[in-house]
Amino acid sequence: MSKNLVIVESPAKAKTIQKYLGKDFEVKSSFGHIRDLPKKGMGIDLSTFSPDYEVSADKKKLVTELKAAVKKADVVWLASDEDREGEAIAWHLAEELKLKPENRKRIVFHEITKNAILKAIENPRDIDQNLVNAQQARRVLDRIVGFEMSPVLWKKVKPGLSAGRVQSVAVRLVVEREKEIRSFVPKASFKLDGIFLNKTGQEIAAKLKKDFDKESEAENFLELAKTSEFKVLNVETKPGSRSASAPFTTSTLQQEASSRLGYNVTNTMRLAQRLYEEGYITYMRTDSVNLSQEAIEGAKNQIISEYGAEYSSPRNYTTKSSSAQEAHEAIRPTDFSVKAIGDVQLSKLYQLIYRRTLASQMANAKIEKTTIEIGDSKLSQHFEAQGEVIIFDGFLKAYGIVKTEDEEEENNEKLLPKVSVGEGLSYKKITATEKFTRPSARYTEAGLVRKLEELGIGRPSTYAPTIQTIQNREYVDKREIEPQIREVVKISLANDKIKKEVLDEKFGGDKNKFVPTDIGEVVNDFLTDNFTEILDYGFTARVEESFDEIANGGQKWKEMMTDFYSKFHPKIEDVEENADRATGERLLGVDPKTGKNVHARIGRFGAMIQIGETDDEEKPTFASLMAGQNIATITLEEALELFKLPFDLKEVDGNPVSVGVGRFGPYVKWGETYISIPKGEDPLSVDQNRAEEIIAEKKKADAPIATYKGEPVTKGSGRFGPFIKYKDIFVNVPKRYDFENLSQNDINELIDAKLEKEANRYIQQWESEKISLENGRWGPFIKFGKAMFKIPKKADDTKYESDELKEISLDEVKKWITAQDPKAFAEKKKPAAKKPAAKKTTTAKKPAAKKSSAKK
């Protein structure tokens, strides 16, 4: 046994570090935190703010193993990550494993390379209690906010909801942007574009320098242009340059991976974590743009060898954020000679980091900007053509340019022909197009991260979990917004003739952008009305600053908590006692058939429409909203349409047919089969002919594509991708097969492999008891119904082999299950018979529509 025990937080990190330290060191993983606040209950003494940490059930065995390893070691090296979370992991390990200061050493490093690890071993320190306290303050404050605000939401809005300090502010950003979009009134103007020809027939595309507010003004201008003698009024050429962006921080990496690679924030951080743990990049949670001198030198050598000395321009960047830790580095490669790695997804992100770091140390790109002014003395406004020529590509050689979502669609990177002042030009075509102003764009994941960082809300480690949480809670989603259509006027001048057209233009559509859900809006409005300070952007940023002060030793964390709670708790009590219930209710109008009020509101099962009042003698009727509708914008007419669903059509092939809306959207029900109506199609427009078409498409999709041993084989696409189905067995079809053109040999091969795998799956099976012994990825296990149980070790503390498990009796397996769940075989009480409920017309609880493609 090694005298040196190193504990890190991840197995991948342990594996990489073990390579560098050799036989004198044993490296073990704690698999993250070994203890935390309890899952049930707050776990905090509110009189002292002392947390009651406990080892989670799934970590007890691991802690026992670590304690045994500690006893055999002379020195324990705590090597968790260098941030506050990593410092807290080290502290929890020291506390739980009862490590004495003289026998423990804390080491940190920015990268997992041999030099960095050996240097860290040579320069150990003790645990930084200030960093630990900053993490404890965040954990405790966020637990208190969640535990005290969430029950208020259960009481005042809907059971099962939850609130969080940073997450609720992120939802507020999304909700406020949506409200801004709804209230936006577009303003129309006419923009003029012209294509002009020089004497050699080369085209010059130009824009009029002024827009016209009125159609008549644009038309008058075109009338004048018809007889104008256009010429070059001015040519201006200016040198310019473009400089590279700083190396990546956590935030900028998430934004760039989103725009260039299409990765979401969570996926980006998962891949970056792997790159760090496998030694390819420096630590990926950082808000610093610093580079070490060693990195600057490494980049310089690589640039000179790959591109030449003229491309090298070493520089260091300074971080604008006052909270950034300059001792940290930006995210960069650990070795500039490694340009790509084997794993495709990892390599894409690695190359992005590699190119960004290299570009940051490269010379500016030199460009030449040319502006040509075109006009005639009788015209009040002139046209302008802009172009750019790259004289020296500099950093663009490594990184290129990608425009952000906020930049104009037009770009100037075009080459203009040589012209001289006074040179005559003819117009080929001049077009005046009606354009409408647009509201601010909805947030993408990258845009939301950028806004949170700009407001000082959260820190590098919080962006990804925050964005994941608000989606998991279903406060926001990325549903597709169908575009609307409006008419626009286009007036063209060509061949001395003016032509006017009215065209249809789509606007307002969106996809892969954050949109608040109904419940998200209602919760946000309730919180902003009743907890103004907690939801205030400035307050949330100030809390982050307090955590920074605690980390720097400038503030005591329990004093901060006392000050916060003395103001927060009375507000909780006041809101719980005095605030009105929130349902987001809107009175839409009166139902012309019944004369009753029509409301849109949040109900027990989500957003719904209600006709009538709850205290009426005749109970109200309800209808669920369709996808894309929400209670804040639905009209009375749209709401009343929902009560026409479901409706019946004529039978098809002897089976009843109906049209309705369920959990997965609108559907046609044919017998017992639910078939999704195509996206964007109004279910109310589905008549008998259309329903028969949808059923025929379903029959065609479900038709056998082949047979296997005389049984039909069908195909489909589910949540795990394309598959074929034989009997009740689903077989995934890997990418190496041509799914659209599967041969009989392909099908035989796929099903044979699946059946062989299934045959090896069961060691023993008792179908009537719903119990089996199965081979799993991590070894044999017991399955009872849907639950899985461990197989205990034998009396001699060794594991059972598969052959031995074939001899185990059912009674013995039941004993193993009972030892882990004493109530596993207890008789379930029959539920008491319910009284028949009063019959009510409702579509809110209709059966869920199933996807048209089978699920596995």
UniProtKB/TrEMBL annotation:
Residues 824-856 are annotated as: Disordered. Residues 128-572 form the Topo IA-type catalytic domain. Residues 162-167 are annotated as: Interaction with DNA. It catalyses: ATP-independent breakage of single-stranded DNA, followed by passage and rejoining. It holds the Pfam family Topoisom_bac. InterPro entries: Topo_IA (IPR000380), Topo_IA_2 (IPR003601), Topo_IA_AS (IPR023406), Topo_IA_cen (IPR013497), Topo_IA_cen_sub1 (IPR013824), Topo_IA_cen_sub2 (IPR013825), Topo_IA_cen_sub3 (IPR013826), Topo_IA_core_domain (IPR023405). Residues 847-856 have a biased composition (Basic residues). PROSITE patterns: TOPO_IA_1 (PS00396), TOPO_IA_2 (PS52039), TOPRIM (PS50880). Residues 3-112 form the Toprim domain. The keyword Nucleotide-binding does not apply. HAMAP family: Topoisom_1_prok (MF_00952). This is DNA topoisomerase 1. The gene is topA.
